[in-house]
Amino acid sequence: MSEPILSLRNINKSFGAVHVLRGVDLDIYPGQVTALVGDNGAGKSTLIKCIAGIYTPESGDYHFDGKPVTVSGPRDATALGIEVVYQDLALCDNLDIVHNMFLGREKKKGVTLDESHMELLARQTLDGLSVRTVKSIRQTVSSLSGGQRQTVAIARAVLWNNKVVILDEPTAALGVSQTEQVLHLVRRLADAGIAVVLISHNLTDVFQVADNIAALYLGTMAAQVKLSEVSTNQVIELITTGKSAGVTKTEAKK
Amino acid sequence: MSIDTPTPTLKSAMGDYWSRVKSGDIGSLPAVLGLIALCAVFTTMSSFFLTPGNFANLLTQAAGVIVIAMGLIFVLLLGDIDLSAGYSAGVSGAILVILVTNHHWGWAPALAVSIVAGIVMGLVIGSLVSYLGVPSFVVTLAMFLAFQGILLLLAGEGGTIPITDKTVVAIENSNMSPLLSWAFYLGASALYILSGLRKMAMRRKAGLKSELVQLWALKTFGLLAICAGAVYSLNLERSNNVALVSLKGIPEVVVLILAILVVGTFFLGRTSFGRHLYAVGGNAEAARRSGIDVKRVRLMAFVICSTLSAIAGLIFVSRANSVSPTTGGNATLLYAVGAAVIGGTSLFGGKGKMRDAILGGLVVAVIDNGMGLLGYAAGIKYIVTGLVLLVSAGVDALSRKGSS
Prior knowledge:
The structure holds 2 protein chains of 2 kinds. Chain A is built from 8 helices and 12 strands. Chain A is of the alpha/beta class. In chain A, the strands form 3 sheets. A 6-stranded mixed sheet of chain A has the order 6-9-10-3-11-12, with helices on both faces. Chain B is mainly alpha-helical. Among the domains of chain B are: about 210 residues, no CATH class; about 80 residues, no CATH class. In chain B, about 75% of the residues lie in helices and about 0% in strands. Chain B has 16 helices and 2 strands. In chain B, strands 1-2 form a two-stranded antiparallel ribbon. The longest helix of chain B is centred in the middle third of the chain and has 28 residues. In chain B, about 40% of the residues are buried. Chains A and B meet through strand 8 and helix 4 of A and helix 8, helix 11 and helix 12 of B.
């Protein structure tokens, strides 16, 4: 296995008296999909917010590309090349696909917007992800389906050459065929060399695309294992009880 | 290229437009149809409605409301409102008149001070809305009363201060000569055609699909033909007594409005500030997460709105040759909001264009003017205009439902 691009060691985070993350370790590898699973309240959201710089952990080490870094705000995470696609996608319905992909980071020529340049880059990115489901890249986001919106949000994260893309429940609100589309897209992201973190409650999805699974249980990392080494039942045990016969916590460290 | 359908034809472009209309993206269509219908009705009912004199009168009548509506569009795009825009025009107008008439200033420095006053009013409203977080409805309702008070104090109770400065009065009361009118039309048309051609050429150079040339030509030359008709009609003699005074040519205020239209359209469509306005209006949270300074965008929108109100103040005092405690008052603000909404700007934010103010402003002015000619009481005019505004807002709400 190659070196992890992002690795967290012994992360602790409390909110008042509640100790949400207790010494969590996590490794994220380039070109792989790491599924982050865990029951409600296990600390998945808190963990990704720590990665994204929205929360600052009380203690723990944050290594990026082998070097220790301090991430004390969302800007630091963005600067490292970490992008989170949240569940609500944060798209503007009244703007078109190109506008949304460049929102807040518009390409300019002098004082005016360089529409042609942005359209070309957006098109290249969508083509690179083999997105063929949108009719025109100048249609407004309000006219897109749920899966297409997810695609636009993911493509926006890819457009800026991010090294780590974190997807928060990307298939939660989608139907069967759209879920399929998005999972294919997730796979292609990883194949393009991006380190993908997939947060999901749906183990079918996880087993379809993930390379390794990190299971959180009550704020601790129950295990981080290769997908090929575990069964669905073992993962369910990890999520519900924090341990499973045949899976030891040490496997997470390899 | 994998995305995008095959090269569009005129027929497929029409089909696309129709499906957009059906899905609720109707834009200015109701305003255009309404304008045609209203003109047809009033022309059959009043022989005076479609005369060159009344046409010119209509434009100067609508001018102030149109300029306020243009400013309001910036605020409406965010889903906010500025109820004080009418009286901020009144206050700016009063400052202009007092400096010129009472203090014998030249028109230029006086106008500069009145516009600065507009900017300051916008900064106050914008800061309260954006940094303190008071809803714009409440802030501007308070300012509506406060500005009305300032205007009353400035003008003196029941008092009217006249203004005789030639340049100020000329804006609403003078016309370009017919020759200059045609030259202006030709120059503006040439620039309009060139900018359209340049846009298409640049897209083609970048290897992107551009708008269908036939469709562009149809739209451009259709618009220019209508404008040519308007210029021709404005160049006809409309004085009742030619021996005494000759009245013909494009009113100067039209040039001012077109200039604001061009600058405003450029800001909204071609700069990142304009893009951010639409983004904040569409989804403020998404805009914030994309790194857009939402508070600053909101502040700027209110500053632009009040600045354009100050220019509307100039138009009001020019039209009345004076300022009074009702300048910019009465139904002015409601007419301006009505103009923007009738023109196709959404009250929910995120949707609207500068030209909406002109189309909607003309609809409001045609109702006002036509019903006046037919001898209806002011009360009836208010009721009809109110109902038209209500219908437009209803259409806006329905189209929003349809698209979501």
